[in-house]
Structures are given as structure tokens and as C-alpha cells.
Amino acid sequence: MADLCRGRHLVLLWVLATLVTISSAMPPPNPIKCDQTDCQLSNSYGIWGDRKICHAPKIVYPTTEEELRQELANANKNNLKVKVVTRFSHTIPKLACPGTGDAAVFISTEKYDSTINVDVEKRTATADGGVGLRKFIDTIEKAGLSLVAAPYWEGVTVAGVISTGAHGSSWWGKGGAVHDHVIGLSLIVPANEADGYAKIIKLIPQNPLFNAAKVSLGLLGIISKVTFQVEPAFKRSITYNFTNDSDIEDEFMEHTRKNEFGDIQWYPSRHTAVYRYDNRVPLNTSGDGVNDFLGFQSNLILLSKSVRATGIILSND
Predict the structure, then answer these.
(1) DSSP string across 230-266
(2) Euclidean distance between CA atoms 52 and 159, whole angstroms
(3) How far is Cα 212 from Cα 291, in angstroms, rounded to an integer?
(4) CB burial of residue 124 (10 Å; 0-12, 13-18, 19+)
(5) In this structure, are residues 134 and 116 in contact, taking their beta carbons and an 8 Å threshold?
(6) Which residues are the signal sequence here (predicted)?
(7) What b/e sequence results for 181-215 when a residue is b if at least 16 CB atoms lie within 10 Å of its CB, and e otherwise?
(8) Residues pairing with 275 in the sheet
(9) Which of 13, 182, 221, 310 pairs as cysteine with 187 (C-beta 3.0–4.6 A)?
């Protein structure tokens, strides 16, 4: 029986290795699908929690901040409900859905992603709201700078990542949420006719609306520009420790104090805790590892089924 189980494991591992070798990474499909009369929005999970379609009759693609203002002004003037969507839609609840009915419009920031201004001396970086997180990180790294906090998935925009409260893992410094490191933003809000039905307001930390605007879930307006406080470039050194979870209640506070980006994964059914010792190290430290966790990659259905089958076999052994 043991030989049979080992044989199954070897076959599944061979399938996984083969699929990883022959398949190329591809991003998820565009969440917006339009025909001549309607546009439908899906999310990265394929379907919304309520199993109902999210749609609007129209979608627009502004490329500049002024075009973005004009589109919101037009919607306000015509009493249309508005929701902003991006190249990827990574949300379980319908945060990006304008509701039911035809009096609605999607505003996509997919093509509003051209500007990233880096000030090395002040250690700041300002980007268009539609700039993807990976593009932003790559750009500031070329200037010798790093964004301290980031979520595990990079398929988000700089506006989306802060407005939804996305985060990494840290209690150090300003904190582990990306919005903790925002020091300025521009917000496009509805206005009266005299102000052209929409206007741009600039917010800094001293403004009483600043914290609300950063994590607004899109309810206060459209975030058009985001300015981050960044730091000199660094690498991170990561070590995992799989251990018994008997002392997890006593150890997790100390773990967060000792490790800047520390993380704990807890598996109660297996009485196991996985402690991640994660700290910054100098940029010249050897090694250039990447997080190749399959859960955050585009995979073939057969690969997902193989992973699940492997888990079932291992849990039954």
C-alpha cells in the first residue's frame, strides 16, 4: 500500500512539473465584456457572490486626469450612477458594480496609467490612479527606491490597492497596509453646474478628509493621483518555520516585534503553525528569490485539479 501511495505521489508530481514546464503564464481575461447594447463586469473568481450579473449600458476609457474629470462630470450632469473598474477586477463583493438599472456607466482606468513621477531626493513617487502595482514597483526600483508595504497579489492599481485597504504584514513603522504610506492624493468629486459638474481636489495628511478618502471603497469620488512615501531600495530575507501550534497564543506578539514583515499561517486541524521570519536586508545581499506561489498565478484547470488531488491523497495517508 505504501508503494502504491508513493507511486501516486510521483505521478502527480510529474504531472505538476510537466504542466509548469509547458504552460506559460498568462494574465486573467479582461473582466469587462461588451456587446452592442450592454457591458458586463465579472471578477477574478468568475462570478459574484449573489450569482447575479453586474452590468451597465456603457463603459468609457479616459487616458488623462482631465478626461477622467470630464467623464465624471458627464455622468453627474445626466444623473448616472458611476463605478470605476480596472484592468483586473479582484473583489468578492460587488464594490465595482454601479447597481441595477440602465442609468449607470463604468469608468475604466485601464488606459489611464502613463504617469509615474519619482522624486529621489524627497523619496516620494506619484502615479496615475490606473497605474498597476507591478509597474509602479518596477519604476521606483529603477530609481533605487522601494515601496515598504504591498499585498500578495500585484494585479491591482495604485488607487484600487489603497481604497480597498489592501495590505501586507507588518506592525513596524507606519504599518503594513499600503495606504499607511500614502502622503497625498487627488480626488475627482461631483460638483455643481458652476464648477463644471466635477472638480479635482488635492488632499494631504493635514486635511480632515484624508484618511477617509484613502480607504473610501470608491464612495467619495475617483482617486486620480496617489503620492507614496517610499524608502531606499532593499531586499527581504525570508525563512519559514513549520512547528507545533501549542504556543501560538504566547508567541505571535513577540514574532511581530522581532520580524518587520513577519507572518503566521495557522493550520488548527494539523496542530501546525508556519512562522515566516521576514526582514529587510541590504540591496547587495546575494540572492534574487521570487514568490512563485501557485495560488497567485494563472494556471491550467488540469493543474488546479492535480493540486487538489495531491492534497486529498496526502490527507488520507
Answers:
(1) -EE--EEEEEEEEEESTTHHHHHHHHHHH-TT-EEEE
(2) 26
(3) 32
(4) middle
(5) no
(6) 1-25
(7) bbbbbbbbbbbeeeeebbbbbebeeeeeebeebbb
(8) 241, 264
(9) 221
Cell of 197: 459638474
Which of the four pLDDT bands, split at 50, 70 and 90, describes residue 315? low
- 135 closest CA partner among 120, 108, 155: 155
Question: Average pLDDT, stretch 152-171?
Answer: 89
Measured CA to CA in angstroms, residue 260 lies from 52, 68, 122 at distances of 42, 38, 23
The predicted-structure confidence for 222-245, as pLDDT tens digits, reads as follows 999 999 999 999 999 999 999 999
Q: 3-class SS at 119?
A: strand
Amino acid, single-letter form, for residue 73: A
In the structure grid, which three cell numbers stand for residue 174, read together?
507606519
Copy the grid coordinates of residue 27.
Answer: 494574465
Q: CB 12: neighbour CB atoms within 10 A?
A: 17
Per-residue pLDDT tens over the stretch 186-226: 999 999 999 999 999 999 999 999 999 999 988 899 999 99
Please report where in the chains the cell 473582466 appears, as a residue. Answer: 31
Beta strands in the chain (DSSP E): 32-34, 39-41, 54-56, 59-60, 81-85, 104-108, 116-119, 124-128, 145-146, 182-190, 198-203, 222-229, 231-232, 235-244, 263-267, 272-281
User: CA–CA separation, 156 vs 110, rounded Å?
Assistant: 11
Cell numbers standing for residue 316 = 488520507
Mean pLDDT, rounded, of the chain: 87
* All structural domains of the chain: 32-108 (3.30.43.10), 116-232 (3.30.465.10), 235-315 (no CATH)
Q: Which one, of 276, 285, 174, lies nearest residue 234 by Cα?
A: 285
Q: What is the pLDDT of residue 291?
A: 73
Determine whether 228 is exposed, middle or buried from the number of CB atoms within 10 Å of its CB (0-12, 13-18, 19+).
buried
